Amino acid sequence: MEKIDAPIDNKNLMEDPFEDEVFGDFYAGPDHRKNGVRHLVGLAEVYDEEFPKCVNYSAYVDVTWTYGASHITIKVIGVSASEDFEETKNEVLEHYKKVFKAWECEDNPDLKVEFYQLNNQLNVIFYFECE
């Protein structure tokens, strides 16, 4: 199998799901939509599966990608002072892993998603797997 980058260019991968769905309530960073940069900052909330209206974990995250690139970066930049940073960070980043892994479906044939995590940063890499 051959791996081919899946660029976020509104042809291969659309930006709408990032800006309107996954990070829909986020605010634009100072360099958002300048020189191809996309930069959003906001509150990520992870809900309890058993009680969907209850937030289990929340953290402020900083999200960036470049138009035409095939990856995004999600950084946990803050959690409530009453919460454990490591535990909350891990839960929030796991949430985003589940969200993006779900994009591997019949609606997105050949799309694959991989992750690289270092400390409080998660890189989400998109590519197509072709024969």
Q: How confident is the prediction overall: mean pLDDT? A: 93
Roughly what percent helix?
10-25%
Described by strand count, sense and barrel closure, the largest sheet is: 7 strands, antiparallel
Coarse structural class: alpha+beta
Count of helix runs: 2
In total, the number of strands is: 7
Characterize the overall form.
Answer: globular
Low-confidence stretches: none
Order of helices and strands: EHEEEEHEE
- Cα-atom Rg, whole angstroms? 15 Å
Instruction: Give the distance, in angstroms, between the N- and C-terminal Cα atoms.
Output: 5 Å
> How much β-strand is present in the residues?
35-45%
Q: What does this 3D model show about the protein?
A:
The protein is globular and about 50 Å long. It has two helices and seven strands; from the N terminus they run βαββββαββ. Helix content is 18%, strand content 43%. The mean pLDDT is 93. The longest helix has 17 residues, at 85-101. With 131 residues, the chain is of the alpha+beta class. Strands 1, 2, 3, 4, 5, 6 and 7 form a seven-stranded antiparallel sheet that branches. 22% of the residues are buried. The protein has helices at residues 16-22, 85-101, and strands spanning 2-5, 27-28, 37-47, 55-66, 71-79, 111-118, 121-130.
